[in-house]
Amino acid sequence: MAVVELRDFWSDRGIEPHASYSFELPSGAECEVELRMLSMGPPGVENTGDYLMTDEQDAFAREMYSDAQARVDELVETDRFQETLEMQRNFPGAPDTTEDDAYFHAVDTELSLSVTADYYDAMEEIRVGGYLMGHSCPGADFEGSPLTEYNDMDAHEDTGGGVGG
Hints:
Blueprint: E1 2-4, H1 6-12, E2 19-24, E3 30-39, H2 55-64, H3 68-75, H4 79-89, H5 99-126, E4 128-136, E5 156-158
Antiparallel strand pairs: 1-5, 2-3, 3-4
């Protein structure tokens, strides 16, 4: 297994994030997140997981997430976010979820739902959907969570397969 930095992985391919945002976890750790949207296959075909896009798709993905930081800042103050956070804390099959892990997933879930609600029809038309995510949360308590290694932008263990979100 080789340890690679996801930032270098993307940089080496010339693929810039469509969105970057940050937030503070309950432990006080600051999280930085980068998203790269995926292009979809033709209508009726499952998402291809392809991060290479046409210029139209790339511009659209950047527009979709142009206010990602503002959305995150607002959503963490809502009752809906608190409900999603509670759901993440009590997620079936994950009884030892840490507060940081639950909070991270609640932010991801609510941001994704918010953007999709605003852009769903256009996403289908332009054929953009799904995303790859990378994060850097030094000092976060992700013990027992795949977040400890999976898509950590600072040190991602790669077994030679693809890097996904």
